[in-house]
Design brief:
This is Disease resistance protein. The chain has six helices and nine strands, in the order ββαβββαββααββαα. By secondary structure, it is α/β, with parallel strands linked by helices. It folds into two domains: about 170 residues; about 40 residues, no CATH class. β3 and β4 form a beta hairpin.
Length: about 220
């Protein structure tokens, strides 16, 4: 993993000046609510999972202009799976950044209370097969009404664990959703000692609470 020199505390930098990971394909950041300054990640190709952390790095990455690796590449244009969960400071997704997500196959938004809408640029994601929005009160209501024209082309839409649209498409990728469910399960199990006799019952209950709503 390579990265550019980190910007010093207090310095101002544009998205292009900000340090960024050069060869990262997957990125998972969980339970780091105070982590606001990290290198950006425009060249991700596999998956992105941000849970209970700041959304600043995501917004900065989406606002970047094209980056050079072996060729000129739009930020996150090769990203296939994205889960953003429990991000309290995320209020909007940049219009210009959404347009770049042309390879996205899974888009999951979970417990982002301040995120109030999905921009019109969502209409450009004509290859996106699956959108799931859970426990986002403002956003779920907007998706049913004002934002519906922005997402109505997506074959499978799940809002608060209920199917809003299912056109019978069978090309969904569930690897990130399953990964998130497993990670949540392991987090819950970590609070119990290995000698716990009721560990199996705990696992079943955790799977019911965490995994089933995602599948």
């Amino acid at each position: 993993m390579e990265e550019e020199e980190v910007v010093k505390e207090g310095e101002e930098a544009t998205e292009e000046d900000w340090p960024h990971f050069l060869r990262l394909s997957y990125l998972s950041i969980r339970c780091c609510p105070k982590l606001t300054r990290i290198p950006l990640f425009p060249t991700l190709e596999g998956g992105l999972l941000l849970e209970k952390t700041s959304g600043q790095a995501l917004v900065r990455t989406m606002k970047m202009k094209a980056v050079v690796r072996t060729a000129l590449v739009a930020p996150l244009s090769k990203l296939k799976e994205m889960i953003i969960a429990g991000i309290d400071d995320l209020e909007s997704l940049p219009e210009e950044g959404i347009c770049n997500l042309t390879s996205l196959q899974e888009f999951v938004i979970w417990e982002c209370p301040r995120l109030a809408s999905l921009p019109p640029a969502m209409r450009h994601l004509t290859s996106l097969p699956s959108l799931r929005v859970n426990d986002c009160e403002k956003l779920t209501e907007r998706c049913k009404e004002e934002d519906w024209p922005n997402i109505s082309h997506i074959p499978y839409i799940l809002l608060n664990y209920k199917e809003l649209q299912n056109l019978g498409t069978e090309v969904f990728l569930f690897s990130s959703a399953i990964y998130y469910a497993i990670q949540s399960l392991l987090t819950k199990l970590s609070f119990f000692p290995p000698s716990c006799m009721d560990r199996r019952a705990t696992m079943i209950e955790a799977a019911r609470c965490y995994a089933l709503p995602l599948l």
